[in-house]
Amino acid sequence: MELGLAGRRVLVTGAGKGIGRGTVQALHAAGARVVAVSRTQGDLDSLVRECPGIEPVCVDLGDWEATERALGSVGPVDLLVNNAAVALLQPFLEVTKEAFDRSVEVNLRAAIQVSQIVARGLIARGVPGAIVNVSSQGSKRAVTNHSVYCSTKGALDMLTKVMALELGPHKIRVNAVNPTVVMTPMGQAAWSDPHKAKTMLDRIPLGKFAEVEHVVDAILFLLSDRSGMTTGSTMPVEGGFWAC
C-alpha cells in the first residue's frame, strides 16, 4: 500500500529508542523528512548515522521552556507523532509526587505543547495535517502498579478526541494508537519475568506481545492519507486485550 509519505516533514518525539526510533527509521525509508526529538544525545547521534538527513533535536520535553526554545522555530511540519513517554511504576499507596509530576509532564503535557506548536503552524499555512498520539492498552484497562501511567494514557486518549473535535475544521486529523507490551529493550526488561509475563499474556487472545513494527505500521497508516476519514480514534494494537 502506497502511503504517500515521501517529501512530508514529520516530527517524532521519543525518537531515540523503541517505537519512536522504529517510526523514524520507517519514515526515513519511505522518503519522509524527519525531525527526530529525544532527550538523549547519544541516541540521536546513532540515529543520524543510521538515517542520514534526519534533523535531530535534543530536548527534555518535560521542560516546557526548553521545549519552546527547541521547537518554537522548528519550521513547517506536516505530520506529528507524540511518542515520548515515561513509565514510572509504583504501587498505588507508594505513588510519589515526583513520579506523578514527571509522568504528567512527559506523557500528557508535552503532547499538548508539541501539538500546539505543530497545529498552529499548519493552520497558519492553511494546509491539512495529521497527528498520532502513542497511547497504551492501559488507557482502558487497569494494570497493577501502573496507576499513574494508566491515568496519563487514559487522559491522552481523551485529549486525542478533543483535539480531533477542535482541529477537524482545520483539516487536521488526530488519532491514537494503543499498543500492548511491545518488545523494545525496555519492554523486554520490564516483562522478562515469565510469571509476570504470563499474567499479561493470559489476557491477550493472540497470546503474544507486540513487536515494534506492529505499532509502527499503525502509526504510518494513521499519518497517511489512506486514513483520510479517520480522526478521534484509538486504534488497538494489543492482540485482543480489550476484547476480554
Automatic annotation (TrEMBL):
- Alphabetic keyword roster: Acetylation, Carbohydrate metabolism, Glucose metabolism, Membrane, Methylation, NADP, Oxidoreductase, Xylose metabolism
**Localization terms from the record:** Membrane
Key word Kinase present = no
Where is this chain primarily localised? membrane
Write down the Gene3D superfamilies for this protein, in alphabetical order: NAD(P)-binding Rossmann-like Domain
* UniProt EC number: 1.1.1.10
User: One GO biological process from the UniProt record?
Assistant: xylulose metabolic process
Q: Where in the sequence is the signal peptide annotated?
A: none
Per the record, the similarity remark reads:
Belongs to the short-chain dehydrogenases/reductases (SDR) family.
Subunit text: Homotetramer.
Question: What is the name listed in the Swiss-Prot or TrEMBL entry for this protein?
Answer: L-xylulose reductase
Organism in which the protein naturally occurs: Pongo abelii
Q: What is the lineage of its organism?
A: Eukaryota, Metazoa, Chordata, Craniata, Vertebrata
